[in-house]
Each structure stands twice: as structure tokens, then as C-alpha cells.
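Dear colleague,

Thank you for sharing your sequence with our group. We've completed the structure prediction you requested, and as agreed, I am returning the results in plain text so they can be pasted directly into your records. Please verify that the sequence below matches your submission; if there's any discrepancy, let me know and we will rerun it promptly.
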Amino acid sequence: MNTASYTVGRPEATRRLGVDEAVWSEADARFPVRVPRAWFDRIEDPDDPLGRQALPHPSELEADPEGREDPVGERGLKPSPWVVRKHADRVLLLLTRRCHLYCRYCFRRNDHDGGPADPSAAELDEAIRFCRDSGARELILSGGDPLAVRDEKLFAVIDAIGAPTVRVHTRAPITAPERVTTELVEGLASRAPVWILVHCNHPDELSPPVREALARFVDAGLPVLNQAVMLRGVNDDVDVLAGLCEELVSLRVFPYYLHHTDRAAGNARFRVGFEEGLRLHEALAARVSGVALPRYVVDLPDGSGKIEVRRALQDGILRERES
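Please find the predicted C-alpha cells below.
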């Protein structure tokens, strides 16, 4: 999908927001900097909730001794370069490394090593064969962002694999809501059961076009769940979290997960400690209903998957596996 028509360039960000050109260039060489117009125009300051998530910062270029190149242990669980298999009943296919907006805290930010942005035809065929023959009940389409590919390719992959249930993990409805077209929604609805898992971290992301995009999915009978990430300086505040969860519920989107920030090398400025995060989640639980309360989880660095932060702390799992 061509994003050139609505992606903001470095000169404009420098003029309007004072982003350092040298920082932009060096950060972009390590992990792409792309900001859709619809997102950029709502940034008032580089450190507001929208700017902080999208714009490069000098801290990305500093040494990060606590950061990990593979923070959730995926690299050792790839039967092919574009497939991750952590669980017997699920298989995850990385359709592309491209995104409409490259979030600066991304747990896969260090996978952009100069390799191709998309699988070759042969690699995609290999990945499809593995997923089809895996016996998994759930196909998870991820990336990058699976909605950064054309509808025709997306639908062809879903049809070729034929999994009983499909999950599309995408930030596009939030960062590029124009991507949620009638053709996309109808194509996914015709392949039900398809679940849409979006990624929204702050109420300010829920602009009118975003709300309309989410409604298109729900109105078509496609369940929509949200996965937020706890981020320093963005949503590490109970009022913000409560506002986000309540707004999502009002839009018929279930607040599914609140992820503890993965320690990807380069995202140190976003990290919140486990105990602080747990206190925030407990305060959130006292503020919102069960329908609006996401599970607070951490994706363990050994590749074993997600676990509730409270349980992990109580059982000493974090100390054992984070060491």
C-alpha cells in the first residue's frame, strides 16, 4: 500500500515541531520513522501523547544496557523467517514488516536490520504451507501491520491457510483509519470468524475518523478488542487509563490487554517498573467495571508467552526469567 500521499516528512516535522533533523535521520536508519498525516496534524508538542509515540528522540540512539534485541523470545521460535510458533493451538504469520506508523516503543523495532520489508513469493508460500499444515486452530496475522498489504493479498493468505479462526492484529484503524474501507470490512466479514485486535494507548488517539473506522468493523459483526501498552509519559496515569478504557467500551471495543512495556533495545524512555504498573492497574480496577478492565500482562523474554503481572511477581517468575 502506498503511504507517500499521507506520510509526513522530516522537513515538515522539523519546521512545525522542532524535531532535530540529525536525530530523525539516525533514528530512521535504525528503525523507520513514518508518521501519517492524520496523526501528525493532531500533535501539539513532540512530548505530548501522540508526539511521544511517533517522533524520534535522542534516547533511541543512546546505549541501553537493559534493552534486549529479542525482548519476547520470538527469534528462537521461528520455523520459517515469517512465522512464529509459541503455542500448539496458534500460529502467527508476519505478513510484512511495514507499518503506517512506526511506534518508537515497538517490541519488534530491532527486527529492521536492513532485510526485506516483505517476504518473497517463495518465502510467503513456505510460510502459508507451514501455517496450513500446523494444525493450529487460530491464525494470527501480524507484522509490521497486516493491513499495510493490499486487500487481495490479505484475503488470499487467509483463504489459502483456511484456519478455523483468524485474528488480525493491526494498528491501522488507529493510525490510518482511511485504510478501513468498505471493501476491507466486507471481505473480512465474509471470512468470519475473524477477530480484529487493535492497538490504542491514549484517548487522544480516538479521533472522529478512528471512531468511524472502529464502528465499521463492529457494525459488520467483527469483534474488536484492544491491546494497550503501558508507556511512561503517555498513559502511566490512572485517569488516562480509565478514560481510555471507558471510551473504548462506549465504542463497543473490549479493552483486552494492558501490556507491560517490552524491554526492546532503544525504548528505555517508555518503560514503567513492574510494581508501579501493578499499582496503576489496581487503581484502574477500582475505577472501572469488569467489562472495561484489561488484563495486565507481560510477554516473557524466554518466549513462553504472556502471563499476568501479579501472578508473575507473586511466583517469582519475573525475577527468574528477567535475570
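Summary note from our side: The CA atoms of residues 203 and 243 lie 6 Å apart.

Kind regards,
the structure core
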